[in-house]
Amino acid sequence: MSLLELRGVSKSFRGLKAVSGASFEVAPGGIHALIGPNGAGKTTIFNLVAGVYAPDAGEILFDGRSIHGLRPDQVCAAGIGRTFQIVKPFAGLSALDNVVVGALHGFKDVSAAKKHAAEIMEKLGLGAKRDMLASSLTLPDRKRLEVARALATRPQLLLLDEVMAGLRPTECDQMVAVFRELNRAEGLTILLIEHVMRAVMALAQRIVVLHHGEVIARGTPDEVVRDPAVLESYLGEETEV
Amino acid sequence: MKRLVEGVPRRGLAILGALLALLLVFPTFASGYLLSIGFLILYFAYVGQAWNIMMGFAGQLSLGHSLYVGLGAYAAAALYFHFGLSPWLGLGASIGISAAAGAVIGFLAFRFGVAGVYFAILTIAFAEFARIGFDHFAWVHGSSGLFLPVANYAENDLWNLRGSPTMFYYLMLGLTVGAFVLCHVLLRSRMGYYWLAIRESPEAAQALGVNVFRYKMVAVMISAAMTSLAGVVFAFYYNNLFPEQIFHISRSIELILGPIIGGVGTLVGPLVGALLLTGLSAGLHEVMLQLGIDVPGIRQVFYGICLLLVVMFLPDGVWPPLAKKLRLRR
After folding, report:
1. B239: domain range?
2. Which one, A52, A63, B240, B319, has least CB within 10 Å?
């Protein structure tokens, strides 16, 4: 059984179809990527899964249970962590306290949450920056902070929205290594939106390609890059691959 | 006790201890007038602290906190006036009614997405409803005001809150210390972290599993309940209540000046702000009196200048840079 399943999910904004009839599955323990040109509806799908919007049609199942109509905090409680494409740090709090807020989801005791948060920051290479104000972090560090916060809630499924953007290739490879390790050691399932093909190709076991709100291809990275529809709509314009 | 002071700089504890000692012995040498200023400073420090929970911690701007002062004052005063009920029992009603009023406002706002400035307007509206409503509320004598019987008591009657200004001073001191400790504990609790998260980014907080609606409601209700206690003391200290005064918007504004000038969202800010504002304005009044100059409304002008200076030069309030100077903070 798949951990996350979208069945014919649609969402319109004032008549504009952002997502139409999208269906795909994410297997437990897998790393899947959601790719597509700008405006393809990738972030909208994340927001639908995360409970920010309710779909107009279709169904979203998590662990076999419909998560339709759940609020974002309930979706988090169900076991889905997410990052924001446009980072939303708690600017006035220290980096550590940002992560502590996430950790408090699982640890009711503040000192236990702090310990857990510090471990996660260490894992993501933010250890030295724990006492800095989140507002004074660089963008790559804020992206890492987004990931750290989401991870601190100890999700089963992690939704990553362009966390590699703006990272240098070596930093990108470090991040990829972190996700691989989390996936391997803790069985964390990951669904990522990414434009950096270097990361997508290194991480994703399966790729879903979105174009104009519709799923136009899905499969292994090798299959997808050979798909003529994909080449035409998306990869044809990219030379990175 | 050990956990309470954990991580607090020793210098900070020493300064707080010295301040507390000073406040404790203050009535032994202060004149009647100075004592009344001391009472006012503590009063504003306390209500500022209560307001700060809502605005400074949870990020919800209330410009109608006079509502909770007034409801608290009227509830306890009316129960004492009509039934001779001790304010220590009456304050249960004060807390209940104010928290309920806060819950109604919070529910309306947070359920229907009224936020920011619109939320602030809603809080003003409710305080104004109360002001106009109480003007016609015959049980508490409407606009002609509720007067508590004043008699000369040979000794302080703490149970009925009838007694000397010194008693009220210590009562207010107790409340202020209590509020300070409570806020300190709250800020370090799970709820405190959640409030700050909501203040900084409600969307991100929600994505991390925080039930934003619930925690905002709790912040409003705690703030309202705490504020109502100040109303109870206010009623029994001044012995008269007029809807036109106690629910007036100027009272709401007055009580938020302290924390704004001291530092919104900080623990010490409301204290510093109340000390500066009330202390300095009383000093100014005294100087003007000595010089024989009588300028009506000088206090308001003074408040305005203070606010202007702080907003221009110390947008975070007086406390954060002061704390840095005293090396109490990084």
Report:
1. 31-247
2. B240
3-state secondary structure of A18: strand
pLDDT, one tens digit per residue, over B231-278 is: 999 999 999 999 999 999 999 999 999 999 999 999 999 999 999 999
- CA pair distance B280, B285, nearest whole angstrom: 8
pTM score = 0.93
Contact check, Cβ <8 Å, B196/A50 = no
In a domain, residue B38? The reply is: yes
**Structural domain includes residue B113:** yes
* DSSP SS3 for B18: helix
Give the residue on A whose Cα is nearest the Cα of B265: A92
ipTM over 0.90: yes
Residue A220, number of CB atoms within 10 A of its CB: 11
User: Is the distance from CB of A42 to CB of A160 less than 8 angstroms?
Assistant: no
How far is residue B167 CA from its own chain's centroid?
19
The structure tokens listed for A85 are 């494409």
Q: Which residues of A touch B (CB under 8 A)?
A: 50, 52, 71-73, 76-77, 81-82, 84, 88-93, 97, 100-102, 104-105, 108, 110, 113, 131, 149-150, 152-153
Question: How far A237 CA lies from chain B's nearest CA (Å)?
Answer: 34
Q: Does domain A1-79+155-241 have CATH number 3.40.30.10?
A: no
